[in-house]
Each structure stands twice: as C-alpha cells, then as structure tokens.
Amino acid sequence: MLLRISSSHDPYRNVALEKYLFENYSGEEILFLWVNDPCVVIGRNQNPWLECDLEYMRREGIRLVRRYTGGGAVYHDTGNINISWISENTDHAVLHGILRDVLERQGITEIQAEKNDLLYHGRKISGFASMTEEQKHLYHGTLMVDVDLDRLIHALTPSPLKIHSHGIDSVRARVMNLKEADPQISVQKILDAFTALYPGENITGDLSAVLKESDKLQSSAWLYEETPGFSILHEYHENGVLYQCACDVSEGIIKNIRIYSDHADPQVLKDLENLYKGTRYHSTDFDKNLKDYLNHNS
Q1: Is 298 helix (H, G, I), strand (E, B) or coil?
Q2: Cα(62)–Cα(39) distance, rounded to whole angstroms?
Q3: Which residues pair with 39 in a beta bridge?
Q4: Do 121 and 110 contact (CB within 8 A), yes or no?
Q5: Strand, helix or coil for residue 143
Q6: Per-residue pLDDT tens for 52-79?
Q7: Whole domain around residue 55: which residue ranges?
Q8: Among 185, 203, 223, which residue terminates a domain?
Q9: Are the C-beta atoms of residues 75 and 155 closer than 8 Å to each other?
C-alpha cells in the first residue's frame, strides 16, 4: 500500500486530487491523507440550504464543497485529517484496522467501528462514505483530532427556513475530538505515525486535470445546480404585513414562486413573482432583495 499526503490545504484541490488518484488507480492500494482549510463538505445528493448555514459560512470564510460520494455533511478545518483508501477490496474493516493501529500507537485504544463510523467510548470521531466504479473502490472519511467544535456546530446548523427536500439529509451525531482523549495528540503526530508505518510517494503525472477539476468544484453549477429539487417557504413581516413566499427550486433556479400576503395591492405580489421566477436561488440574497423591493413599492 502506498501512502500519499497532500501538501495543500485547499479543499477543492484536495477533492480533485482524490478524484485523480481514484481515476488513475493501477492496482496497488493507495492511502491518501489530506487536511483542509475551514469548509463544509456535503454529499453528492445533498441540499446546501438544508445542511448548513450558508450566511454564517460566508461571514466566517468557511467554503462550501460538494464531493462526488454520498453520505452526510461534515465540517473540516486544519484540526481534521481526511483519509481516502483506494483499493479493489471493499472490506472496510481493513481501513478501520489501519486507523486503530495508528491510534493505538498514540496511546488511544478502545476504538469501535459502527457501520461507517468510528467511535471512542460511544462518541463519533470518524465518519465514512464510499464509491465504486469499474472494480475500483473509494472509501473515505474524517478523523477529528482538534476541530473547532463551535464553528462546526454553527456551520452545520441550517437556517430556520421551511424546506422540503428531495435529496439526502444528514443524520446529526454526537461527535468529539481525539484531543479530549489525549491533550498531547495533534494532527502532525498522527500524520507522522502514518509515515512511520507505510511507504510514501509524491503524487506524479499530468496534474493539469487536477487544476481543471478544482475549478469545476468551485463553480456555482456544481455547488448549487447539482442540488436535487426542493421546495422552500420564506416567512417574515415587513411594515406590519405578513409575506409567505413559496419557491420550487430545481437545478438552483426558481422554477415557480407564489407569494401569499394580505398586502393591499395584489399587483405588487404578481410583479414580484414575475421578477423572481427563472432566477438563481440564494436564500440571503432572496430575502434582502425582496425586502428592498417591498420597501420601495409599498
């Protein structure tokens, strides 16, 4: 098995590198380790508006990433190690055993596997998702070492909008950092433990495809238009009037919108519906622009 560790903390580049390694897998097992700057990574078929607080993330400089595999939303920062295992072997107990071995060498024992999670005394320290194509298998996940749990909680708390989604929701779990088990442990110590056990190689080949893939991963088309269709209801009061805006969103575009209100002029509501139908949906921009319009036309 070959060990490869990314020197980049750019989440888009690292997801693109993972895809490159998977697509160019030639039969020898690969263990790819990578650490990201703050970001929320959602599953392939998830709805970002349902999974996280996009406005909080925008304020805090936490990037949104959509990966290629399924599973739930996770928060990454430099206190988290991402682990990708690429193999023809689909027995996930192999990777779980590798992680147990590494952690036991750091003095952390009693790690239990439960479905696609690793637990320490019943609390989640690691979660995984998988993908198989043409006899190649990718099993990847996280290892929480010293993650900022306050930012995790805020980032993974969706805004209080009423959403009916056709995608996949996350299952919230009680999580912990390994730092709680051992205050002396660190991301670097664990990375060093991996390199002491397994031979490493630099990532070689034509990496222009990685840069191209990284650009795609940052695009609005991939981040938002890949979201499964959903319906969302915005409710608020403005100038003493209640407004309920029901939107049907598909591929990131408002396909239909109905505005219900006791506003005195129904034409204002009809004009608003015509104004927003067919436009790209962003929840914070939607609220701000709608309120601005109502303040100027009421």
Answers
A1: coil
A2: 5
A3: 63, 76
A4: yes
A5: strand
A6: 888 899 999 999 999 998 888 899 999 9
A7: 2-223
A8: 223
A9: yes
Handedness of CA 121, 122, 127, 132 (dihedral sign): positive
The residue assigned the tokens 């219900």 is 260
Pairing outcome for strands 136-144 and 253-261? unpaired
- Look at the block and give the residue holding tokens 């129904």: 266
Strand order from edge to edge, sheet including 117-120: 2-5, 30-34, 80-87, 136-144, 123-133, 117-120, 111-114
Q: Specify whether 132 is located in the same domain as 276.
A: no
The pTM for the full model equals 0.79
pLDDT, tens only, 234-252 = 777 777 777 788 888 887 7
Q: Which of 2, 4, 9 is nearest to 33 (CA)?
A: 4
User: Angle at Cα 29 formed by Cα 145 and Cα 99, nearest 5°?
Assistant: 25
Residues 203 and 261 in one domain: no
> What is the rounded distance in angstroms from the CA atom of residue 70 to the CA atom of residue 168?
8
Cβ–Cβ contacts within 10 Å for residue 246, how many?
15
DSSP bridge pairs for 131: 138
With residue 260 as reference, give the H or E element that holds it.
strand 253-261
Return the biggest CA–CA distance within the chain.
73
The CA distance from 118 to 109, in Å, is: 12
